[in-house]
Amino acid sequence: LCVFVALLWTHATGWAQEQKAVPKDKRATVAEVKRLLAATNALTTGKQIVGKVLDGMSTALPDVPDSVWKEMRISVDWNEITDSLIPIYRRQFDQKEIKKLTKFYESDLGKKFVAAQPTLIKESMEICEQIAIDFERRMTAKLAEKGYKPQPNAH
Predict the structure, then answer these.
(1) Which of 21, 70, 80, 95 is deepest in the core (most CB within 10 A)?
(2) What is the distance between the alpha carbons of residues 102 and 127, in angstroms, rounded to a whole number?
(3) What is the pLDDT of residue 9?
(4) Which mean pLDDT values do the consecutive 10-residue runs of the chain (155 residues) have?
(5) Which residues lie below 8 Å from residue 69, measured CB to CB, with a gap of 6+?
(6) For residues 71-102, b (16+ Cβ closer than 10 Å) or e, as one string?
């Protein structure tokens, strides 16, 4: 629900509208984007997420041998993922913007921000989860006041 609320908010405020692509002659080079991705620890974060997903799956599927999970971790092609991300950044940010972003993320404050991101995300998700639960509870109560009752899931 938290993700839904965020998407709804971005759509309502116009943030979800497609940005115009940066003209090709103003785009950053592949090397500049790779430097930015390295400075933001984007792939490290991705690897951690994949690791947590596979850890969860291995707990849910205890009969699958560790060797299979290890094989799955190794099978992720991070170069392919990087190559897929680069055009997105090149379309959204011009060369000057990529350089400014990289300068920020390579600064002491940028490094502090990157280091704090896992905690920021974790704590934000915990808060969003509680907000979503409270929101659902309030909306259900309001609907009940108006005579509407939730229907059981029709599965």
Answers:
(1) 95
(2) 30
(3) 52
(4) 51 56 90 95 83 89 92 88 92 95 97 92 89 93 89 63
(5) 54, 57, 58
(6) eeeeeeeeeebbeebbeebbeebbbeebeebb
Tokens linked to 133: 């639960």
Element (DSSP H or E) covering residue 117: helix 108-145
Instruction: Answer whether 120's CB lies under 8 Å from 112's CB.
Output: no
* Contact by Cβ (8 Å): 24, 94: no
Q: What single letter denotes the amino acid at residue 71?
A: E
d(CA 101, CA 110): 9
**What pLDDT does 19 receive?**
67
